[in-house]
């Protein structure tokens, strides 16, 4: 079976292009971060996180503690680096805390 299409693109390449441009990819990234959130952010932050949303390289975190919001805001750069390192890509460019 030929693994390349007529224009020279591989089936895997077409699939990757589709995933980059689909909402499904965004939801998969969001799910992966949510499942691993305690590992990525720590147990205290995870306990006070109500919701996580990923859209256009921005991660929005909804926390229920004002003092914890301030702490996460101060550690934002290191958290971005930790998430990107664990996901093996540069998906997160900014974190919004609400």
If you had to describe this structure to a student in words, what would you say it looks like?
This protein starts with 10 loop residues before the first helix and ends with a strand. It has a single domain, classed as GMP Synthetase, Chain A, domain 3 (2-Layer Sandwich). Helix content is 55%, strand content 17%. With 98 residues, the chain is an alpha+beta fold. The radius of gyration is 17 Å and the shape is elongated. Strands 1-2-3 form a 3-stranded mixed β-sheet. The protein contains 6 helices and 3 strands.
Q: What's the level 1 CATH class?
A: Alpha Beta
Shape: elongated
Please outline the major beta sheet.
3 strands, mixed
Kindly identify the CATH topology.
Answer: GMP Synthetase, Chain A, domain 3
The overall pLDDT, averaged over residues, is 87
> Order of strands in the sheet with the most strands?
1-2-3
Structure summary, number of beta strands: 3
Low-confidence stretches: none
- Strand proportion, as a percent range, falls in 15-25%
CATH architecture: 2-Layer Sandwich
Q: Name the structural class.
A: alpha+beta
The count of domains is: 1
- The tally of helices reads 6
The helix-strand sequence is HHHHEEHHE
Helix content: 55-70%
Distance between the termini: 51 Å
Give Rg in angstroms.
17 Å
Features:
98 residues; alpha+beta; GMP Synthetase, Chain A, domain 3; 3-stranded mixed sheet; 6 helices
Short description:
The chain has 98 residues and is α+β, with helices and mostly antiparallel strands.
């Amino acid at each position: 079976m030929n693994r390349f299409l007529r224009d020279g693109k591989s089936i895997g390449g077409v699939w990757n292009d589709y995933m980059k441009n689909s909402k499904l990819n965004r939801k998969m990234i969001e799910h992966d971060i949510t499942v691993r959130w305690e590992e990525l952010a720590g147990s205290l932050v995870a306990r006070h996180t109500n919701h996580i949303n990923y859209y256009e390289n921005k991660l929005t975190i909804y926390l229920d503690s004002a003092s914890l919001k301030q702490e996460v805001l101060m550690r934002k750069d290191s958290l971005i680096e930790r998430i990107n390192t664990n996901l093996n890509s540069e998906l997160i460019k900014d974190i919004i805390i609400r």
